[in-house]
From TrEMBL, chain A:
Alphabetized PANTHER family for the sequence: ABC TRANSPORTER G FAMILY MEMBER 20 ISOFORM X1, ATP-BINDING CASSETTE, SUB-FAMILY H, MEMBER 1
PROSITE patterns xrefs: ABC_TRANSPORTER_1 (PS00211), ABC_TRANSPORTER_2 (PS50893)
Listed InterPro entries: AAA+_ATPase (IPR003593), ABC_transporter-like_ATP-bd (IPR003439), ABC_transporter-like_CS (IPR017871), P-loop_NTPase (IPR027417)
Provenance organism: Candidatus Litorirhabdus singularis
SMART domains named among the record's database cross-references: AAA
The name this protein goes by in its record: ABC transporter ATP-binding protein
The UniProt record lists the keyword ATP-binding: yes
Keyword Membrane: no
Residues of the signal peptide: none
Superkingdom in the source lineage: Bacteria
Keyword entries, A-Z: ATP-binding, Nucleotide-binding
From TrEMBL, chain B:
Family from the record: Belongs to the ABC-2 integral membrane protein family.
Localization (cell): Cell membrane
Protein name: ABC transporter permease
A UniProt-annotated Pfam family: ABC2_membrane_3
């Protein structure tokens, strides 16, 4: 008999607000089921219900033949669950975490050593058994979390966004491991915000606003878009501006940048004449391509947010006319013996988007913090808008806007108070201050939420508020540190629409991200690995640099992985000789 | 269903975390002696070496003899003067706590058996507490002096006071048991609230709850290391109190340990309840201080006597575990193993503890709902 998880008429509300509405589905063994949907669609709630950690309001869940309410213990024995937040003890070592979960899951003593050896080898953690979990990189933590969830060979594996904030290399390894497990007949439910992962799943369940909007194979959903996905290839000039214009064109439902091409989803099977004209003007060629899961996903959820950025339309062009806005030479940061940033030099032109990419723990954030004046370099120099950060970092700070990972907003202040606060710390006063605050409220449509805490805002609005706070003083340079980590595709598109608009006004942008599709929006990408800058070029040039006969058209992700692996191999041979 | 192994693994994990967390060890082993010495030396409620001024407006032998008696008192530091004008300013600035004025009439009155001799005592009423016992000291010295002169003080009755349990009226003896209660409240309630809230905050609680580990296993394995920590801190405090500060332990060590062990039940229960309700460290710390530490300090009878509080406040103290603990500890230290007193207090402690644990279990059972 094969294992399965069945969900019948499942409903769950929190304080009268429905989170899940009459869900019916079946998760079968031997395949990976992807759980996708926008933020707040109910993915985590469903995961917790499946793990027997919550009680349904109505309906029932049967996990491997056991009811999640009346047979909780059996359900817990049959499942391995990896919550969104690692669930590891950071002050315990890798080995101690494994021992703890082995005991909790009652793994027989005689099997223990063999299981540990197998899992450590499987996750590549063997060299790090005595390291504290807090000292592991993000990707390694996720692998350890997976190892802990796998200890007693569960029949059902529940993974809640295991790849958030994990670099593409680690993400691919994680995926390979889980694929292997599902081959053994395990039920795997993998919730994710990465639609390329969903595309690789056997089955996807798409939740929207607490209800199932689609379930079935991802290919089947993609097929619905047959004849509506187009590629406008080799556009000349500013491809971001061409995308904005394409999105404003009649009959275009969604679009993204792919190298020097635009990927467009149409409302109908045939491109309109307006679109044809536009593509011709851009010097590109329009051709039908096979739809991706992401195309169908966006279409199903009502299409992309369009290409117009109201805030960019309101902002006057950047007055500073120097050609180089950010420049660093030999930038180095040492923490004791450890070199986090090693002799990094680059410059960013006015109105350019520079993407900083690299594996977890590569030194991206350290480099970033030095450029924002938050960290003092051990050596080298950094000029921001012509100002030396070592001499006058506060003058430079007024020129730059900073948006940190996870939006650093104050949860105990209301939305209005957050705006007041940030306008104040950036030195805005009097009429101008009021004017800018009112403008942000109007442009980002924050009016209904002014009295609420940012914590309770829908994610899209939280992101708008964070951006508003970073923009009120009209910075010439924007630093964005993983601004979209864990954010769903539609909200990310809206974000990039604003960034595109701002850059068009002459704002310079530095951004770190783990989303390879976002790297495509950048003018140039700096690839950082083990503290060193290993490549700096346009996205297309980076892709071309790893192209081989076997892989003539590598994706950004393949380029990333290829370049990192080449350098790691190089460093290893160096260490050996 | 052998849960022994799971339980042992959880206890081991918790113990490793305690040993690796410098703040837990600091709270358990550095803070107790610190508090103990602070309360013993700095917050003494006794008054000795009070600065007073003695104004001798008369120069006669009686006045001289009385002034000498004041100067000779070990409780008083005397500044002599001829005129009260010389010292009044010092009373205003607070350098002197009282003025004793021996006026010109005094000498005459002493020589005349028909008249009662009088002196004037001026005290600084802005510190009512010290004013009243400074006045008392001044009065006491005068009365003793009169008896020494073969005269009877006014009223003709001589009070012979005896203080039971604490004959020297040394407040340190009363404070040390109170400090133990404070330390145990901090370890039991504050530390527990913090560590359990941390598990919720970091998501480890969610991961643990998804394993076959049962609810009571998770809860009690969490508490056991802190129970041991609390008991060790009690032993350390008692040892320091008896050996270094000279506080008598009239009851048995067994009774002391038993009372302390029982107190940890409501203290840990309260910490657990707080962390289960608030689930974040900042809130848990705030609530633990407001509902655990401050009441233990202010409403337990440690510093302020419960009987002299307003009735409504007296009722509030009923649910404050530290109140019963302070009472029981004082009994053990100063009076001995008076079981009727100890048992009543322990019964109350267990009742309050059962309330806290019951509420926690109820909240926990619902899982993440």
């Amino acid at each position: 008999m094969t294992v399965s998880v069945s969900v019948a008429d499942l409903s769950k509300s929190f304080a009268q607000v429905p989170a899940l509405k009459a869900i019916n589905t079946l998760f079968a063994g031997g395949q990976i089921t992807g759980l996708v949907g926008p933020d707040g669609a109910g993915k985590t709630t469903l995961m917790r219900l499946l793990a027997g950690l919550m009680t349904p309001d109505t309906g029932a869940i049967t996990v491997a033949g056991f009811d999640t309410v009346t047979q909780k213990i059996q359900v817990h024995e049959a499942t391995g669950y990896m919550p969104q937040r690692f669930g590891l003890y950071e002050d315990l070592s890798v080995q101690e975490n494994l021992r703890l979960y082995a005991a909790l899951r009652e793994l027989p003593e005689q099997q223990r050593e063999a299981t540990f050896t197998r899992l450590l080898k499987f996750t590549g953690l063997t060299p790090f058994t005595t390291r504290l979990a807090s000292r592991l990189s993000g990707g390694m933590k996720q692998k350890l979390g997976l190892a802990c969830a796998l200890i007693a060979r569960p029949q059902v594996l529940l993974l809640d966004e295991p790849s958030v904030g994990v670099d593409p290399l680690s993400r691919r390894e994680l995926w390979k491991m889980v694929r292997e497990l599902s081959g053994e007949g395990m039920v795997v439910v993998w919730s994710t915000a990465y639609l390329d992962e969903a595309d690789n799943c056997d089955i996807v369940v798409l939740l929207d606003d607490g209800a199932i909007a689609y379930q079935g194979s991802p290919q089947k959903l993609s097929q619905r878009l047959d004849g509506r996905s187009y590629l406008a290839s080799h556009v000349r000039g500013d491809r971001r501006q061409w995308l904005v214009r394409a999105l404003e064109t009649e009959g275009v439902r969604d679009g993204v940048i792919q190298g020097d091409s635009l990927r467009l989803v149409l409302s109908q099977a045939q491109p309109t004449s307006a679109l044809k004209e536009l593509v011709a003007a851009a010097g590109g060629e329009l051709s039908a391509v096979a739809p991706r899961f992401e195309d169908a996903y966006i279409d199903l959820l009502g299409g992309g947010p369009g290409g117009h950025s109201e805030i960019a339309a309101r902002m006057e062009p950047v007055a500073d006319s120097r050609s180089t806005m950010v420049e660093c030479k030999g930038l180095t940061k040492r923490f004791g013996e450890f070199v986090a940033t090693d002799n990094v030099s680059f410059s960013v032109a006015r109105g350019e988007i520079l993407g900083l990419l690299g594996p977890n723990g590569a030194g991206k954030s350290t480099t970033f913090k030095m450029l924002c004046g938050l960290l003092k370099p051990s050596a080298g120099e950094a000029l921001v808008a012509g100002i030396d950060l070592r001499r006058s970092s506060s003058a430079a700070k007024l020129k730059l806007g900073y948006m940190a990972q996870k939006f650093s907003l104050y949860g105990l202040l209301s939305v209005r108070q957050n705006l007041d606060f940030f306008s104040g710390i950036y030195g805005l006063r009097g009429r101008l201050r009021q004017q800018r605050i009112e403008e942000m409220i109007e442009v980002f449509e924050l009016d209904p939420y002014l009295q609420s805490s940012p914590d309770v805002l829908p994610l899209g609005f939280k992101q708008r508020l964070a951006l508003a706070c970073a923009l009120m003083h009209r910075p010439d340079i924007l630093f964005l540190d993983e601004p979209t980590s864990g954010v769903d595709p539609i909200t990310r598109r809206e974000f990039w629409t604003h960034i595109t608009g701002l850059v068009n006004n002459g704002v310079t942008v530095l951004v770190t991200t783990h989303f390879m599709d976002e790297a495509e929006y950048c003018d140039r990408v700096a690839l950082v690995n083990q503290g060193q800058l290993i490549a700096l070029d346009t996205p297309d040039a980076l892709k071309a640099s790893v192209a081989t006969a076997a892989l003539p058209e590598p994706t950004m992700e393949e380029a990333f992985i290829g370049l990192i692996e080449t350098q790691n191999a190089l460093l290893q041979t160096e260490a050996l000789t | 269903m052998s849960s022994g192994r799971r339980f042992r693994a959880l206890v081991l994990k918790e113990s490793l975390q305690v040993l690796r967390d410098p703040s837990a060890l600091l709270i358990a082993f550095v803070m107790p002696p610190l508090l103990l010495f602070m309360f013993a030396f700095a917050v003494s409620l006794d008054v000795s070496h009070v600065s007073i001024g003695v104004v001798m407006e008369s120069d006669g032998p009686y006045a001289q003899s009385l002034a000498a008696a004041y100067a000779g008192s070990s409780y008083l530091d005397v500044t002599p003067a001829r005129h009260r004008k010389q010292l009044e300013l010092h009373l205003v600035t607070g350098e002197l706590k009282a003025l004793v004025v021996i006026d010109q009439e005094f000498e005459t009155a002493m020589r005349d058996p028909q008249r009662a001799a009088k002196i004037q005592v001026l005290t600084d009423g802005s510190f009512p507490n010290s004013a009243s016992f400074t006045g008392g000291y001044a009065q006491g010295v005068f009365n003793n002096w009169l008896v020494g002169q073969g005269l009877q003080p006014e009223g003709g009755v001589i009070l012979q006071q005896r203080f039971w349990f604490n004959p020297e009226m040394d407040s340190r003896r009363v404070l040390v048991p109170g400090v133990i209660a404070i330390v145990m409240t901090i370890i039991g309630t504050l530390l527990t609230a913090l560590v359990v809230a941390r598990e919720w905050e970091r998501g480890t609680m969610e991961a643990i709850m998804s394993t076959p580990a049962r609810m009571p296993e998770i809860i009690f394995s969490k508490l056991l290391p802190y129970y041991v920590l609390g008991m060790l801190a009690t032993v350390a405090c008692a040892f320091l109190g008896v050996q270094v500060l000279g506080v008598p332990l009239r009851g048995s060590l067994t009774a002391l340990m038993l009372v302390s062990a029982v107190f940890l039940v409501p203290a840990l229960g309260q910490g657990l309840l707080i962390s289960t309700v608030f689930k974040n460290q900042f809130m848990a710390a705030q609530v633990a201080i407001m509902s655990g530490f401050l009441p233990a300090l202010l409403l337990s009878g440690f510093i302020f006597e419960i009987q002299s509080m307003p009735k409504a406040l007296q009722w509030v103290t009923q649910v404050i575990p530290a109140r019963y603990f302070v009472d029981a500890l004082r009994t053990v230290f100063l009076a001995g193993d008076i079981w009727p007193v100890l048992l009543v207090n322990m019964a109350w402690l267990l009742a309050v503890g059962a309330l806290f644990f019951g509420l926690t279990m109820k909240r926990f059972r619902g899982g993440l709902d």
